[in-house]
């Protein structure tokens, strides 16, 4: 069974990764050099901790959590204060989020005592401005990360999610490509260095796919490997019994040929083992004969 020479060969030394990269991995890869230069250290632990905090600030997005679409000041404020509040307080703030937003904007320009008064947060419509009057909020506003200055967290997060989706599609196509290359290749004639041993027998569906692959690839060059496999499976399931019997008969012949080669391989292997045993025995006899002659000469 000849293998099509027109099919592109794949380098067997290159394999797809074991898993796809997530959006967090893309975020770390893109921002690690910048933060490392800022810290001026070769120890990656503080850099990773800082990047993890920046990623958490991106994840706790006010636009998706509570529907507040405002500046990075409000994002940092909500992400740092609402983490430590009870669930009922969060529900009240979420229920009356519009009044909380406008009261917070009205009170951000004022000054007050430090700390976060919990009673003021429980009633956001009346005293949400008191929450924004605290000094820690002003410090957070002045120390906003550069990510928020470039673009909003929801856009930044969406960009990394898109890269994660593209990487997942690339991984699936690459994995399917290597699977098809392994499935479509001819049977191996060597096993562990032996000179006559077939690798495996072919199923009827595999024999059909070996013929249909080239036709589908030439007819639809824009299809990926997943679409080609789906179309081949559909055609195989729609084959008539007479046509399918042809491939089944070829598979049986291939199985008979496989068994014949395997028997020859085992027989040749046993003969080689016997020859090696005989050669080793003759060497041992010759060495003993030489030793006995040497002792007799002395």
From TrEMBL:
Keywords recorded for this protein, A-Z: DNA-binding, Nucleus
Biased composition (Basic and acidic residues): 153-166
Keyword Nucleus tagged: yes
Region (Disordered): 144-166
CDD domains assigned: HMG-box_SF
Pfam annotation, one family: HMG_box
Domain (HMG box) ranges: 198-266
Recorded GO CC terms: nucleus
Residue spans crossing the bilayer: none
Gene3D superfamilies tied to this protein: High mobility group box domain (1.10.30.10)
PROSITE patterns, per the entry: HMG_BOX_2
Keyword DNA-binding: yes
UniProt-recorded Gene Ontology molecular function terms: DNA binding
DNA-binding region, residue intervals: 198-266
Protein name: HMG box domain-containing protein
Phylogenetic placement of the source organism: Eukaryota, Metazoa, Ecdysozoa, Nematoda, Enoplea
